[in-house]
Write a structure and sequence with these properties.
about 20% strand; Helix Hairpins; five-stranded antiparallel β-sheet; three-stranded antiparallel β-sheet; Alpha-Beta Plaits; about 50% helix; alpha+beta
Length: about 300
Amino acid sequence: MENYLENITEWFLRSGIKILIILAVAYILNIIIKLSIKRFQSNLEKSDPGGEAGKRAATLGSLLRTVTVILILLVAVMMSLSELGVQIGPMIAALGIGGLAIGFGAQNLVRDIISGFFIIVENQIRVGDVVNINGKGGVVERITLRIVRLRDLHGSVHYIPHGQITLVTNMTKDYGRYVFDVGIAYRENVDEVIEILKEIGDQLIQDPDYRDVIVEPLEIMGLDRFEDSAVIIRARITTRPIQQWRVGREFNKRMKKVFDERGIEIPFPHRTVYMGVLKDESSPPLHVKVDENVKPNTQHRKINR
């Protein structure tokens, strides 16, 4: 019994303390790296709130934390096993062969990781971006080497493996744009309406609540197309990322108010009834009858032939 206790004491003094030191150092390193990444990320976000540098830091920070934890844990386990007298050389070789076999059996997982690596390195999407991936749109909440997590406008969360991503549409990369298709009646003067739109754009860019998020003033592209009940004037405004929808809604609200004040008609769908012409070049009669059963303020007209 005494020899057994002496052996345990000797092992603890020789190897046990080393293992405890290894685990303690790994734990401390893990905390230091996490705090360093978090502090670096916070400094970038403070210097450029909502900017590209902050998004990039948030994306890489999450990835670096995961990778460093795995590496530190792996090294600590290997060193501890070595102190226990386990030959780690054959173990590493076995892990390599096992990893190769797993790679053949888990091709989808390997594809997800490789695709995720290139998506992150190429800076295609970042945490905080508004994107559309394979028909699913939302704000990027998290990116790992295997998946990207989106939260849409309704609060639903979508998990998309990188290997299944075939098309990425980033709507907030570097800057954002809101496109206006302004429909006006055919009787309106297009040049006059364009001048009104420019006035609204100038007022908006001078507003203290919006001037800091507008990158470029309103750009009028001109008369874009003719539709059944309206002519369409196309314009666009360039803003900081994610701000285009806020600025666009405010512009639409002001435009509706100004159009009402100046009598500019925003048309609703119209339909013209053409009765045709007879061979003697006369038009057939159009009989209109008022339905007496309809309430006074909601009268409808019936057309009888």
